[in-house]
Design goal:
Order of helices and strands: EHHEEEE
Oligomer: single chain
Organism: marine sediment metagenome
Shape: globular
Strand order of the largest sheet: 1-5-4
Protein name: Helix-turn-helix domain-containing protein
Radius of gyration: 12 Å
Helix content: 25-40%
Number of domains: 1
Distance between the termini: 16 Å
Structural class: alpha+beta
Number of helices: 2
Number of strands: 5
Length: 54
């Protein structure tokens, strides 16, 4: 079985080249993909810290 990489909010923002505010927006409200379909950034909370799946 493979493995997944998770980033904290700041790391995810740096990886994507966006602000932390944008990452939180993608988690809560989603974003439209190239086909106009709404998608949400997958996130999980571990020991009170939000983590983003790569």
């Amino acid at each position: 079985m493979g493995y997944k990489i998770y980033y904290d909010i700041l790391g995810a923002a740096a990886y994507a080249g966006v602000t932390r505010h944008t990452i939180y927006h993608w988690i809560r409200k989603g974003v439209k993909d190239v086909d106009g379909k709404k998608v949400w950034l997958p996130a999980r909370i571990v020991e009170g810290e939000t983590q983003i799946n790569e």
